[in-house]
TrEMBL record:
Record's keyword annotation contains Hydrolase: yes
Pfam families: CT_C_D
InterPro entries, sorted: CT_C_D, Cyclophilin-like_dom_sf, PxpB
GO MF term (any one): hydrolase activity
Keyword Flavoprotein among record annotations: no
Entry's transmembrane regions: none
Parts forming coiled coils: none
Protein name, per record: Allophanate hydrolase subunit 1
UniProt keyword annotations, A-Z: ATP-binding, Hydrolase, Nucleotide-binding
Amino acid sequence: MKVYSQGDQAIVVSLRGQVTQKATQRLLVLRHYLNEQNYPFITEIVPTETDMLISYDAQMMLKQFDIASPFLYMKKLIAEIDLSEEKWKKQRRCVKVPMYYGGTYGPHFDDLLEELQMTDTDFIKRHTAADYFVSMMGYSPGFPYLSGVDTSIVVNHTAAEKRFIPAGSVILENNKCGITTTDTYEDWLVIGWTPLKLFDPTKKDFALISLGDHVKFDVLREGGGA
């Protein structure tokens, strides 16, 4: 990992080389450790798939510690944190997502089966067998982008036109799977729907699924109407 300064009150931890699940996990172990320590001088931690921005109160650090450089202090602190696989296993979390496939729940499901020359049973078996990793969060609050889609069901195109997509829709976008958390209007390929509420603004932890989580899909019913 590469560590560099971002202004005089922030530090960036950036992944080197190809972005992998294991590399992203190391960033999340780092975030988990810093959150557990509850350092008063760390004001914000913002992770992405490839980088992590850590903001700090440089003035507080200069007053609290006998140091000449808050950046060098932070760099040394980060270098001494254990980011091993064992640490990740202890904080790993898996969320099970029940879902309906096809019918009015998945308006693009049948067309995808025809394109892939695959039966619904075979598609669902491959989709539910995968161990998905939440590699990104975005688009809307609590919206997870899931890596780990079986290569045999990856499609490199969107729908022919945009349409209304209700919250809870399970979508495919290139080599990632996603779950909408709010009603939207997009050209994503919708294969199903989950009744699980992933976003609740009334709760402190408003997102049910977070960056770094693992997700497994369970079949509620194959096809059918809403």
